[in-house]
Amino acid sequence: VTRVLAALAEANHDDRGLAWPAGVAPAHVHVVATGRDAGVVEAAEALATTLSARGIEVLYDDRPKVSPGVKFADAELLGVPLVVVVGRGLAEGLVEVRPRVPAEDGSGVEHVPVAAAADRVAELVDGLLAR
After folding, report:
1. What is the CATH number of the domain that holds 64?
2. How far is CA 15 from the centre of its chain?
3. Distance CA 12, CA 9 (A)
């Protein structure tokens, strides 16, 4: 088993860290709360709970005394396939959804309405697992 993990890590990394395939990743989605505002934390917790209830494996980074930059760097090192950022965009009713590895067509970051975020993330996870 350890050789399999080492081979996967060797084949699925870049200069920023690991980029696990969805089927073997420690989680499907990494939810990052980037503010200390109660609304940000509440929205991030609600999204993480909703995704978990749908059977999506979620890693929720709610560390209150850690800067957003450190959280983003940690997310890249861990290599979870999708990162959902709940923070600045929440004032406009949006969350940021970005794949750890951009698609071949160059598409990457999406700004998704909070109300549609769980559906969009589930759709993206299904697509990643189907590969």
Report:
1. 3.40.50.800
2. 18
3. 5
- Listed as own residue / partner, the contacts of 91-97 with beta carbons closer than 8 Å and 24 or more positions apart are 95/43, 95/47, 97/121, 97/124
Instruction: Give 104-121 pLDDT, tens digit per residue.
Output: 665 688 999 999 999 999
Token pair of 77, please? 């090192």
- The pTM of the full predicted model, rounded to 2 decimals, is 0.83
How far CA 109 is from CA of 31, 50, 77, 95, 106, in Å, comes to 14, 21, 18, 10, 10
- DSSP state at residue 82: E
Orientation of helix 114-130 relative to helix 38-53, angle to 10°? 40
Domain with 59, as residue range(s), is 2-130
- CA atoms in the 13 A half-sphere facing the CB of 26: 14
Tally of structural domains, the chain:
1
Q: Return the amino acid letter for 85.
A: V
Provide the 10 A C-beta neighbour count for residue 16.
Answer: 14
Q: Which run of H or E residues covers position 30?
A: strand 29-33
Q: Does residue 100 register a pLDDT over 80?
A: no
